[in-house]
Structures are given as C-alpha cells and as structure tokens.
Write a structure and sequence with these properties.
alpha/beta, Gyrase A, domain 2, six-stranded mixed sheet
Length: about 450
C-alpha cells in the first residue's frame, strides 16, 4: 500500500482528452517536480506543461491534486488530463514509471478505496457494474449498489444476527435450568425469521443476469416469414441478410437492443421447417435449442400465406407467458391476420409489416407488456445480488437453520453460538468484513486497469 501507482483511466485509442491517474504517498512530490507550480492546491485544476525527467515538454495539460483522505482511494491522488494522443499517453506513463511509479493492476484504485474504508466490497463491485452498464435498468441497479443499498441490507442482517447471538450467550453464561424454556423458542423464531429475510434477497439473484447481461429474445418462425427483416426493423439497421430464398439464415445472428430501458440480446435463427438437408437441419436444431433457453420468443408468421408446417417440438417450447406472435406482411393483398389471431388466440398477437415499417413500436410495447405481466424482471425497488453474494447469503442461511435445529434439540449453546458466528462470517464476505484475500482477488480481477 506504500507504493504509488499510475494508469490510464480512459479507454485506449485516440480521443480529445485522456486521463492518467496516480494514487499513493508520492503524488504531491510528483506534482511539484513535473509541473513546477509549487505545492499543489487540493481540488484545484491547474494548467501546466508536463516536463519529463530529461526536461522535455510532453504536453500542455491540466492536473488536479486530491489530498488524503478526501479522495477516491483515501490516499493522495493526482489526475492528469492530457490530449488523447496514444503516443503522448505512452510517453507520460513511461516518464512516471521512471520516476518510481508502478503500473496499476486491474481494479487496484478501487481496491485501495475498499482497503481504506472508503467503500465496502459490495460498493466496490458496484463501481464495475456502473462502468459496464448498457441499459437504464442495469445503470439503476449499479447506482443502487454503489450507493450502499446491498451493504446496508446486509448490515441489518448482521444486527439481527448479533441480537440472536446475545440471547444464546445467556445460555453459555448461565445454566440452562435457570432460563425458562420459552427463551429458547424465541431464539429459533428469530433465527427462522432472519433466514426467511435472507432467502428473499437470495431470490433476487435470478434477476441479476437478466439486468446486467440482458434478456434473451429469439426471433423464430418458418423460412421467409420475415425474421431477418424483423430483426433489422428492431435494430433500425440492415444487420441480417434478407433474401426471398428459403434457408438463407442457417446460423445465429446476435445483436444488442434496448426494450423499455432493458438490455436484450436479440437472436435471429434459422427458418423452422421439417428439412432433410443436413446443414439446414443442423441450423434448425440449434434454433430450437435457442428457443428452449430464451426469455422471450418472437414467433414470426407470414399472414399472406397458409399456416406453415413447423417442427412439432416448437409447440412444447412456446407459451403465452414467453411468446409474442408477430403477424408479419400485413401489407400484402392476401394478408389474413384474423385467421392467425384465432389460431394463436391465447398469445399476444401484433400485426406488423417490415415492408412499410408498420406495427414495430406496437411490437416493442407488447414485449414490454410480456416482461411486466410475467415478472421476468424485478421491480425498481429490488436489490439485486450476484452469484457471489447469493453463495454467501445461502451459507449464512444454512448456518442459521442449523442453529435453529440445535436450539430445538437442546444441543449445548456453545455449538449454537458457533453456527451463528459462521453465519456472521458468511455475511461479512459480502461487504468484505472478513479477511479473505482470495475473495478480493476474484472481485478485483474483473475490473479494468485504471479503475
């Protein structure tokens, strides 16, 4: 922790401005030596030439000094805003390394902030989520975690757990026969209640991949139903090849879109039909596999043609809860949307035309309605937990239930207290209140350098 580290904090490549960050005890000295402006004034941006060790001017830049502990990392920090020329950036970093700075590891700035009690571990993870957020929902969830919502919930769990432990300690300090039996029932009731609260938070982990990685939406249907055209319409660009020949799409085409503030992975699949041709059959098998794993299926139907003969497997995969039927080619003279509305009367059906862009916004609204009506995503007030958090919460819950079971069976109170301590340690893993270097390494290895 005594070393001073440096890294580029903005993306690599050409840009108007690039930001190089330093943190550590040498920041003040470096600011004075490099910029020749005297002792730096905290939190005041100053324009100056960057002077290399050899005396050469590397750039005309702005620098800002942050005095410990009032900084992101809790240490002295220095931020240098340079022109975003990769060669200038390289020269500046090389000069800093010559002056004794070390190259920052991924997530090392945020790791130092955590170790200096500027944030708990769940908030540190929120930093990475905020940087990688690609939708409004994901951004809101990251902001909530960065603000400490998860840490606060865990601290409330810990407070309740310590109250339960205080009751148990009474059985360790005094003989069992001196305490009324109902006191032990109070312990088990309180532990069961806390276990249920923990489980409700564990349940939110099922939403986390959907929020941060996005819903999986698959476009399915018979060949020439207009699946690729529909994908292009939803994307607002010509991403998929459109052709009047059946079987043009034989592999997946994946793109990201935003639906009602939610990120979605949109996949165009091979046309579904009973095909004997090996390559096309393989594509159809993969399409069915994608449909079976998706959150939402957009079943695309050509309403200007007779009902297609789809593989029978499709009917066990689509339900009114996971499928919107897109009635395409409603602009065609032979279109008969009502016939298909009757066939798919239990489903949400939307009339569209990819030719004249009709109904695409209505289709987006239908997808949003399906998401809301089937609770595919959490409510705005829910706190989301990652797989790591869920594992620690599950361990805490198991220890609580074990303590309850021992209490009911009149097992010695020392063993009950041991289970409660294990539960407390498991909760501490979420906020980083237990000294576990492996957990920290796993968390910060996912960060970008300079963050």
């Amino acid at each position: 922790m005594s070393s001073t580290i440096a890294a580029l904090s903005t993306p690599n490549g050409e840009s108007a401005i690039a930001l190089v960050r330093l943190t550590g005890g040498e920041c003040r000295r470096l600011a004075e030596e490099i910029f020749k402006k005297g002792p730096p004034i905290p939190r005041k941006s100053t324009r100056a030439d960057y002077l290399a060790l050899e005396g050469e001017t590397l750039d005309d830049c702005l620098f800002t000094f942050f005095k410990a502990p009032a900084s992101y990392t809790g240490e002295d920090m220095l931020e240098i805003a340079l022109h975003g020329n990769p060669f200038i950036i390289q020269c500046v970093l090389e000069d800093l390394f010559k002056r004794g700075c070390l190259a920052a590891e991924p997530g090392e700035f945020t790791r130092r902030a955590f170790l200096n009690d500027k944030m708990d571990l769940s908030q540190a993870e929120g930093v990475a989520l905020l940087i990688s957020a690609r939708s409004q929902r994901s951004l809101n969830a990251a902001r909530k975690q960065l603000a400490g919502a998860l840490g606060e919930r865990v601290r409330r769990f810990c407070d309740s757990l310590m109250d339960i432990s205080a009751l148990v300690e009474a059985y360790i300090d005094f003989p069992d026969e001196d305490l009324p039996p109902e006191d032990k029932s109070e312990i088990s009731v309180a532990a069961d209640k806390l276990a249920a609260e923990i489980q409700s938070l564990i349940d939110s982990s099922k939403y986390t991949p959907l929020i941060h990685q996005g819903l999986n939406i698959v476009i399915a249907g018979a060949p020439n139903a207009g699946k690729s055209s529909l994908m292009n319409e939803l994307l607002g660009q010509n991403r998929a090849i459109v052709s009047p020949h059946a079987g043009t799409t034989r592999d997946f085409i994946n793109e990201k879109i935003i639906i009602d503030g939610c990120a979605a992975n949109l996949t165009d699949t091979a046309g579904l039909r009973n095909s004997a041709e090996d390559i096309e059959a393989a594509g159809i098998a993969k399409a069915l596999e994608k449909i079976s794993a998706c959150d939402i299926c957009l079943l695309t139907i050509d309403v200007s043609d007779e009902p297609p003969e789809l593989p029978k497997e499709i009917y066990s995969l689509i339900t009114p809860q996971n499928t919107v039927v897109a009635l395409n080619k409603c602009d065609a003279p032979s279109a008969n949307a009502d016939k298909y509305k009757e066939i798919y009367k239990k489903f949400i059906c939307v009339e569209i035309s990819c030719m004249d862009h009709r109904g695409i916004n209505l289709l987006r609204a239908a997808i949003s309605q399906l998401i809301k009506s089937n609770s595919i995503l959490p409510s705005a007030d829910d706190i989301l937990v990652s797989t790591r958090h869920a594992q620690s919460l599950s361990k805490a819950k198991e220890c609580l239930l074990a303590a309850t079971d021992k209490t009911i069976k009149n097992v010695p109170s020392e063993l009950v207290a041991s289970d409660l301590r294990e539960a407390l340690n498991a909760l501490g893993e979420i906020t980083g209140k237990t000294d576990n270097e492996q957990i920290l390494d796993r968390v910060f290895s996912k960060f970008c350098i300079g963050k």
